[in-house]
Amino acid sequence: MEHLNAFLASYGYVAIFGLLMLGIVGPFIPDDTILVLSGLAAHAGKLDLSMTIAVAYAGSLCGISLSYALGRAGGIHLIERWPYAQRSIGKHMPTVERWFDRYGKWTLFFGYFIAGVRHFTALTAGMSHVNFRTFALYAYPGGLAWVVSFILVGYFLGDQWEHLRHQFERGAVVGLVALIAIAAAGWWWQRRRK
Predict the structure, then answer these.
(1) Least confident segment among 60-74, 82-96, 114-128
(2) Counting CB atoms within 10 angstroms of each CB, which of 13, 99, 105, 127 has the fewest?
(3) Residue 1 has pLDDT above 70, yes or no
């Protein structure tokens, strides 16, 4: 995360735009973290809040539109023919298709908020031949809601971010120890009953 923070600090708005555009097309960039860190930078006065939101939104729109275009242009053929895409993207497609079948076009709006789903909703919409106007009607407002909410989380957490992060890490360690203890006790109890 420190490398990402340094990258954002060095390249500012260009980094936000590029990382979000690429992050939505592929699931290998932590989009949510980028948005929160951008909000933190705006809180610290390194970036302008409204410009940060505008640039992040533009990056997400370019990424989601590119993803839709790839799906429309035959993205499924790429997934079927390229082994790397089959392993990294193909395994998530059934989940996204179920979401898309169940929740329809609203998946384009709310899919932004679910990592893993966000990266494939536009691709699935393109492969399903959802017309562009319908796609834009649901996906673009969803992108705005996602960008604004995550940037504002970082902006309003501000100085509390490091404290909350340390508290979370400490809580995660305690939770992990408790989970291991419960699992060990359950295993011991199971063996004793047998």
Answers:
(1) 82-96
(2) 105
(3) no
